[in-house]
Amino acid sequence: MLFKKICAVAVLSLGAIASAQAADKMYDFKFQDAVNRAVADGVLDGSVKFYLAGTKSGGKVIEKGLVTNKKTNGFAKSAETSCDHVLRSALIQFQNTAKANGANAVTNLVSFYKSNETRSTTTYQCAKGTALAGVALKGDLVKF
Questions:
Q1: So which residues are the signal peptide here (predicted)?
Q2: For the chain, which end, N or C, has fewer CB atoms within 10 Å of the first or last residue's CB respectively?
Q3: What are the pLDDT tens digits along the chain (144 aa)?
Q4: Which of 114, 120, 117, 122 is nearest to 138 (CA)?
Q5: Domain holding 51: CATH number?
Q6: For residue 13, is it within any domain?
Q7: Domain count along the chain
Q8: Can you tell me whether residue 98 is helix, strand or coil?
């Protein structure tokens, strides 16, 4: 009997989490401000530059259309704090991949949440629900 109650509570809890995440709200935050904070804080080393689609072109494309999709715990945190943190995770992944492939920039970056492409020359999109925040980006590795 106790086991059945525990299982029922677990199922209800998982359902509540899934319902909360189904209600993600999309936020737009200033991309360059977030990148500058990450470099200033030492999270990014500054050796790889990041450019939203429409802000920089040229160079030799090393790899096109790479996607990163990161999530973080957003429970009891503001959208801005959660989204800044998860963007940093996405940019760290791009920085490491770029360096490993001989690139020094990631260009043509677009928000790519749930495979929906959103272009902006100034902002990135972040989805924030009750428990999680997520950022997905798609971009090209470039050597300038």
A1: 1-22
A2: N
A3: 544 444 344 444 444 444 444 579 999 999 999 999 999 999 999 999 999 999 988 999 999 999 999 999 999 999 999 999 999 999 999 999 999 999 999 999 999 999 999 999 999 999 999 999 999 999 999 999
A4: 117
A5: 3.30.110.70
A6: no
A7: 1
A8: helix
Concatenated DSSP letters of 9-25: HHHHHHHHHHHHHHT-E
- Beta pairing class for 60-73 and 25-30: unpaired
Q: Answer whether residue 76 is part of any domain.
A: yes
The token duo for 19 is 């319902």
How much is the pTM?
Answer: 0.83
Contact predicate 22/28, CB 8 Å: no
Encoded tokens for 77: 């945190």
Classify the C-alpha dihedral 91-30-70-111 as positive or negative. Answer: negative
d(CA 131, CA 20): 7
